[in-house]
Amino acid sequence: MRKKIFLFPLSFLLLEYCFLLFLSPSCHYYKLEQKLDPINAEFLDKVKYIITKEERRIFLDLPNSEREKFKEELWKRRDPDPQTEKNEFKMEYYNRIERSNELFISEGRPGWLTDRGRIYILFGPPMDRISDNMGSYRCQGIWYYGNFPIVFVDQSCTGDFLLVTYDLTAIRDLNLMYMHELNLAENRARQTITGESDIFYFDWDVEKKWVEPDRLEATVSLEILYANIWLKEEYEKLVTKLEAYLELRDGKGEIV
Prior knowledge:
alpha+beta; four-stranded antiparallel beta sheet; two-stranded antiparallel ribbon; 19% strand; extended
């Protein structure tokens, strides 16, 4: 006697799986996420690197009318200095997303969704980095946060770098998830200013010359480590953009 074989669509099997798990929380929240409007769906996607599981569930369970208030509270809980108008944590997070999109454009998806983009967003720019594109079978890049290396490997040397360092506990204090005091945490690791500006290590010198009894001219020289400069490819050339600002003050500290 021949046995009958029944084939079921994948969607039916997924629903059956959820039912067998008695509508488990994962299925419940999966359905809620699929029903999100584009604005809230984009928000939840963008904050996935820092939002906790509990916060995510609360957001999905909320009625649509209360979700804007939730967003405000999410950023407020991470504001390192609630007394100021600006939320440095939020500014830095979105700045790093934007910068990742500019830096990591070779993998066929937005830069912030790549492994390098995720690490850049969570830990900031590396203090040092090494690129090795000379290997016969793979390319790799190593980022250093202090003495801790993070390794990315591109097996085919096509620009698709995957993270191969999995234990990041040694630098968890740099992670945005733990940076409720963002300024203090970053200053312990490297000289930076959070928000719209990125400051990195550099040396400077001033050469002064009196050209008249009441006139002084000066030349300011900056020396920046090559490893601290991010380059991107444009029209088969590596380019970067550096902005320098100089303030001249008198003996009373007033800008002249």
